[in-house]
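Weekly sync notes, structure subgroup
Attendees: PM, AL, DS (notes)

Item 1: joint prediction request from the bench team. They want all two components modeled as one assembly rather than separately. Inputs as received:
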Amino acid sequence: MNEKAPKKVRKSKATKPKPEAKASKTKTSESKIPGKKKVLVLGGGFGGVYAAKELERLGRGKLDVELVNANNYFVFQPLLPEVAAASIHSADAVVPLRQLLRRVQVRQAEIMGIDFDEKKVIVVQGTRRIPVDLYYDELVIVLGTSVDLKRFPGLSEHALTMKDLADAHRLRTHVIGCLETADVTDDPEVKRQLLTFVVVGAGFSGVETVAEMRELVRRALKYYPNIKPEDVSVYLIEYANRILPTFPADLAAYATKRLTIHGIEVLTGVGTKSATGTAVELTDGRVIPTSTIVATIGNGPHRLVETLDLDMHWARIKTDRYMRVPGRDHVWALGDAALIPLVDDPKEDPADYATQTAQFAVREGWQLAANIVAKLNGQELKPFAYKSKGSLASLGMSKAVADVYGFKLSGTLAWLLWRGFYLSFLPGFAAKLRVGVTWLLNSVMPPNIVQVQAPPPATRYIHYRKGDKVFEPGMLIDGFYTVIRGAFRLTIDNPETGEHFEKVFGPGEHFGERVLVRSALRTGLVVALEDGLLLFIAQKDFTRFARAFPFLDNYFKDYIERTFGGLDKSFAPGSTNAKTELETLP
Amino acid sequence: MNEKAPKKVRKSKATKPKPEAKASKTKTSESKIPGKKKVLVLGGGFGGVYAAKELERLGRGKLDVELVNANNYFVFQPLLPEVAAASIHSADAVVPLRQLLRRVQVRQAEIMGIDFDEKKVIVVQGTRRIPVDLYYDELVIVLGTSVDLKRFPGLSEHALTMKDLADAHRLRTHVIGCLETADVTDDPEVKRQLLTFVVVGAGFSGVETVAEMRELVRRALKYYPNIKPEDVSVYLIEYANRILPTFPADLAAYATKRLTIHGIEVLTGVGTKSATGTAVELTDGRVIPTSTIVATIGNGPHRLVETLDLDMHWARIKTDRYMRVPGRDHVWALGDAALIPLVDDPKEDPADYATQTAQFAVREGWQLAANIVAKLNGQELKPFAYKSKGSLASLGMSKAVADVYGFKLSGTLAWLLWRGFYLSFLPGFAAKLRVGVTWLLNSVMPPNIVQVQAPPPATRYIHYRKGDKVFEPGMLIDGFYTVIRGAFRLTIDNPETGEHFEKVFGPGEHFGERVLVRSALRTGLVVALEDGLLLFIAQKDFTRFARAFPFLDNYFKDYIERTFGGLDKSFAPGSTNAKTELETLP
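Output from the run, pasted for the record:
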């Protein structure tokens, strides 16, 4: 916060009294180079980076190119499973956008909206959170897709995804955390659940993730003396009748064989029905107890793209063959977010459209840059046309499958090809060198089983199946629960006095409010009477809030008195042996 | 949650009816090797790792050694400033404990308490949070120290620290975030604040951190075209009259000169008075606007050690010369947590005690292991005795100061010595190789300016100085505020209707509740009328809570109606242009 900023905002408001800009909010940012056309590229994936680079190169002196992305780095997505398995450093699967795009203005910002009439994009950047207007002459939308798991109850809340760097890092941390606890727990059921790993979806990402995860666990086991190899179960679940649907059938069969040899149970023709924090339920009724579900399914449109009121099909923005968005002047779309026809009269057939791969996105970026420059020069645009050169998938343990220029390859040679291909494709010399060196060193290195834990989120939704326990006597208190859906029964038994307390909680009701008073052990047992949903709030955050807010604090004191008849009496069986101090006010 | 666990807990309760264990909670874990003595080592820093390693070596066949640590890795603290500057990967400054201690049982767990009478340590591990009892024959406390900034109002909440890996990573992410925003902001005051970096405390850690941070910024600047080198200010604040108090005065003078040449303003003889999110106030009254305060001061006892009711001095556990804790049989302490006399009759003089450095901790670990084995064999214990071999501090830009075996060295040679020394000291071949290779590659590598942002905490305390703005019109709504201390004035002016609203909020009152309804722009200005403290709750978490909890939702609806006379009317000047969708229920 500083003294001058608001004056400035007011001034800019006064000097620019646009009638339609009754929102007195945005600061204005314009092309810094007068006379040049401003091209804004939204999104820093393969398509965005290659489009921006080529736009700068072809349009040097005429175009002012700016790329906006939520992160300041480009993610080399094909290597994310390697990051998840700690085969490479997380920093090596990404390249700073500013280093890739030396002559392009890079802006790390969150995109709030697009005003097509005003030809501006509204972004928020940094900590001050004052929206900024970015005006454009040509706009390129390359925002990719998002993960959409809404169709599978519980999967959004309980599955890990493999979309960005944070996901890969989270998966690795999670898997190592499971091994750490499994090594020291005395409870065989808990151990089994911790050592069961499930990957849902057997496209590229699913297959490579399950293979790399298997390898991480296999290599790590020698450091966990209390875990035997046969204690570990790994599942790959695919709804289609075979894995790797975009590959030739014989390569997919080879891949299935390899994965099975590694001890991965490949289940095809079966989907995921629902998930909780402790199990996944399949469409065939089977319930697999697990602490680790990785979902590589469910592509949906980018959150912002959804709100733009553009003509969409298959959750992608329809474009013409030149990648222009029909009905919106000066707007282009490409990459996974766009549905680009490869023929003049496309049918309801995916083969008539560009596929959602990095290979295509790069070529789309080049063609789009050429088309924008051609348009500004009054030249003719060219339709996008490209034929896939093939595909590669790593299977772990130095094996892969490859289908390149029609040649089918499997095994170690395919794996070397896979490494070489990705190394050559990885943008930037520094990244190539670092990943190459890391790969070389890996053969002599122990696996990196360092677990850097992130603090758990303050609030989270937790799904329960009928019969699941929420908590049980003897657990350390960790937070407060509110019922969103379902019914949950609390029972407290005091073995010393024979006292018995029982209460059923429905939507809007809550339990665990004792976290406000002290951190000790649960004395009650809470069980889900039907499938349900709870909102969990961590003790620290809940306590801070309730204490700061006398209204809430009083409510809970009254509630506890009314419901349990006083705090200390009702919770008599509780031990203070493991009591921790509550946070003090700063 | 699974079905069998609670039965098991009940069973173990029934079969072991210890009268003193009225707490029906803990599961029991004992030495798995009958006939062996169990030695528990609490803490995995230098002292703990070297003690456990030596205990296992000397006591093989007789001792069952287990090390308990909150993280599953050992942190090589001297390299944390290099991690913060992205000179090395964060994974390379740490080594998995299981790889360092192949024959020692390693347990990643949180220590809840110690029961000296029962000779057990109570820990919580994993996600199930059922406390586990670990029984010991000999207990070694090596828990280090914690950062205690309570004496400086606001510093705990607003300063970054440099104690563990997460701290180093956070600092790096933060600095790069400042550069990203400074590069695109149009507000010169905000830019200045973002480009001012303050390090408090000029011991080893402070000097190395400020030097490395300066170097990161210097190397990164070429990628931020809108930041000029002269826009950047870096301060090093030291309360003593010179930096590096443990070094000879001439080396400290050399270090000061080098830091100054790098553009670091070294302020000595001045302390820190207080801090907010936007400035630090010094004891001479000067206020430096900054977004980045790094505190390397304020060593306090470990949170757990504080609760143990042991004889403490200078916030350290008193021991005898053999590292035994007086009055507690079978309990030993070493490392930074312990105050170990070097002479039989120590005076009130730090020189009479072991210093808190890695050098000392390693030797303490060795001697302690020998003493425990001697004790069990009925042999004589040896007092701890060691003389420092010297010290080294890196100054960035390939310069350092060294004081080794009485020889004083400065400049590039000292820096090479520093690198060689730390490389040789880094435990484990893999880590040595990786750090060595990274250092070699660094000379040809661009700086790693990738910023992997962690989600901000859901609740946080924010200090304000009189006159500070909390928010202003045009900012995107991000959360809800409750007043803990002080008075804050909200004013809303509608320029179109001329309407004016004003209200002062005191402790227990709140503002920003509109986040419940939509995500749009602030229409009001909130200013601190005196120094104060607010609790901030992020929109997502606050909204989830209020919605799940009808009581709270109704309270806010009433409140808004009562205070502002209806939501849409009162907030008329707000624009929905930058409106985002609120989260939907799963």
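Discussion: Residues 15 and 214 of chain B are 62 Å apart (CA to CA).
Action: AL to compare against the crosslinking data before next sync.
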